Predict the structure.
Amino acid sequence: MAVVGPPAGELGVEDASRVAGADLSAASVVVGGTDVLRGRRASLIGYLGLPVVLAAVCVVMFLWVGGQDLGSAERRLLNVDRISVAFARHMALTVVSTIFVILIAVPLGVLLTRPAARHLMPPVIAVSNIGQAVPSIGVLVILALVWTFGFWPSIIALVAYSILPVLRNTMVGLQQVDQSVIEAGRGMGMTKGAVLRKIELPLAVPVILAGVRTALVINVGTATLATFVNAGGLGDIINGGITANRPVITFVGSVLTAVLALTIDHLGGIAESQLSPKGL
């Protein structure tokens, strides 16, 4: 016996609701899938777009340099081995100095936001400001005169010059945590140390990472001055071009420094988005 349903156009309220719900579900699946694909495409372009452009800039630059009539100075300073050594040294100066900045500035920033040590904040900030108030080349020369030339004096100068952004951002990130959230953690029986580790620091991570990103870019640019104390880096190429009056050499060194700074800033932005707590 056939089951006869309602005539077409006379569906019941419940049937109409089911049909409409099915249509909406299907539409949401299609739209959701499209959004997911768009999100993947957008994130892929966001991750790879700038590196691809910077790589293209480097390729075009080296093709242009290869088509120039190079003298002995250009051939000596713009060969692959010389550029590779200078690039590696520049990266070492940047990364090592930034690691020391993090190891010093983050614990110090945490300490200065504790109630017992807040009276130390003004003098510590004043001392940290000295690094950026004094020209970086002046710090390098002073360290070279009173200590020695080379890698480690340059590291100290870079740390002094870039510690302020990380220190200030650590303090600001911790100070902006809502006091009610801290009190809620304390009310749940958490110790002060547990509140700091599980509530304050995770909520301050985005601001702290922004300071680290700034310090990295500052160190990339400032590390070019390390050439004046025999610490190497891409500054050797730039200074070599200036000394020999060869604009091509200076141009290549400057472009490579800019590309490195933009690449590190891009990687810092990716790290900032990936390491920040979800939902912030």
